[in-house]
Amino acid sequence: MKMPVGMGPEDFLQWYRNPVTQAFLGSLVEDRQEILEMWASKKFIGDNADQSNFLNAKALSQIDTIDQILGNLEDTARAAVEK
């Protein structure tokens, strides 16, 4: 991921390491875990196969989005440290 527009590496690291940012990212990790636990307890089974497929696809998309956000931010932080 590229540095956000208008931010240099130092600015990004300051934002990334900020306790408020870390709390927000922590909430994303908690949300991801909650989705996995809901899936494990069969909360995404619908009344028919199409509904179940939709609910499972939606949950997987949410997990994928969280993973992409967290991964991109970690990669950007790593790159900022290296600069």
User: Strand tally, please?
Assistant: 0
Biggest sheet layout = none
Number of helical regions: 3
Average residue pLDDT: 95
Could you give the order of the helices and strands?
A: HHH
What best-fitting shape do the alpha-carbon axes yield? Answer: elongated
- Spatial separation of the terminal alpha carbons: 14 Å
- Summing up helix and strand content along with how strands pair, one would put the structural category as mainly alpha
Low-confidence stretches: none
Radius of gyration: 17 Å
Beta content comes to under 5%
Helical fraction: over 70%
Walkthrough of the structure:
The chain is mostly helical and 83 residues long. The chain contains 3 helices and no strands. Helix 1 crosses helix 3 and helix 2 (19-40) runs antiparallel to helix 3. The two termini are 14 Å apart.
Sum this structure up briefly:
This protein has three helices and no strands.
Give me the secondary-structure topology.
Blueprint: H1 9-17, H2 19-40, H3 49-82
Helix pairs in contact: 1-3, 2-3
Main attributes of the structure:
83 residues; mainly alpha; 3 helices
